[in-house]
Amino acid sequence: MSRINFELDVLRSFVTGVELGSFAQAAERLGRSTSAVSAQLRKLEEQAGTAVFRKAGRGLALTEAGETMLAYARRLIDLNDEAAGAMRGTDLEGWVRLGMPEDFGEAVLPDVLGRFSRAHPKVRIEARVARNADLLAQAAENRLDLALVWNDGSIATRGETVSEVQLRWIGPTAKREIWRAGREPLPLVVFEAPCIVRSAATNALDRAGIPWRVVVTSPSLGGLWAAVSAGLGYTIRTGIGLPATVHAMAVGEGGLPKLPSLALSLRRAGVDHGSPADLLAGIVLDEVRSATAALPLAA
Q1: Which among 34, 261, 284, 2 has a CA at the least distance from the CA of 148?
Q2: Using an 8 Å Cβ cutoff, are 259 and 169 in contact?
Q3: Is 113 within 8 Å of 123 (Cβ atoms)?
Q4: Longest C-alpha distance within the chain, in Å?
Q5: 35/26 Cα distance (integer angstroms)
Q6: Which residues, given as ranges, of the chain have pLDDT below 50?
Q7: Taking a C-beta distance cutoff of 8 angstroms, is the pair 114, 144 a contact?
Q8: What are residue 237's DSSP bridge partners?
Q9: pTM for the whole thing?
């Protein structure tokens, strides 16, 4: 049986179209005609020997085989781009200042730093893991070249939207009674104000007519996890980077109201095309989108 050799250009069109939700937009981004991209997708299905897409209303959705292909295509493209960057970037030098919220600092930053340092070993990175308000302030003062920040629409981040992430109520993994609805205020474990996620939670509770009280405040994510796992109250985060002692609660669990989603933006300060910061931004976007795409739709 002959081996199948998938073409990277075809895979790149496929992945770009799925991520943008439009193959016409993918063609524009990749500098190809829409007909050329359509031909590439037909070739992909021919090589795969099975349907990658299915009809979904007026559009297209991935089949189960298409979902599998998407995961492998992303990995192949990442490896190709990493190899190309390593060949071009062995002599690349410089300094990049990157900031991320704590959730992503623990769950995503190690992969970002590993991929970048392998491709560009001479570039020095200063990574800062901090609260959202701190990251916004540092970015506004040009003390960060790249800043991954939360945005609820009330702030002008002047950044590229990376993903829309659903907020979740977080409770202890161990089953225990924390709150008796209708008898007492909901106990909250939150970051110190100002906090965009804290405000989203209290607004949701106020709209639902549920009284609440702050029982623990913490300047760090570790403090939130400790208090929640001890059964002192609920907190609000995403499903990213959760320790085993806490879990993201199911829709309606405990009588808690639905929470909104928040946009993640990558803010850049004077980043030139092909610069170390620009190359690092590409890896940040890829890793964060992969992490958030794996989250279930909820709450």
Answers
A1: 284
A2: yes
A3: no
A4: 69
A5: 11
A6: 298-299
A7: no
A8: 168
A9: 0.67
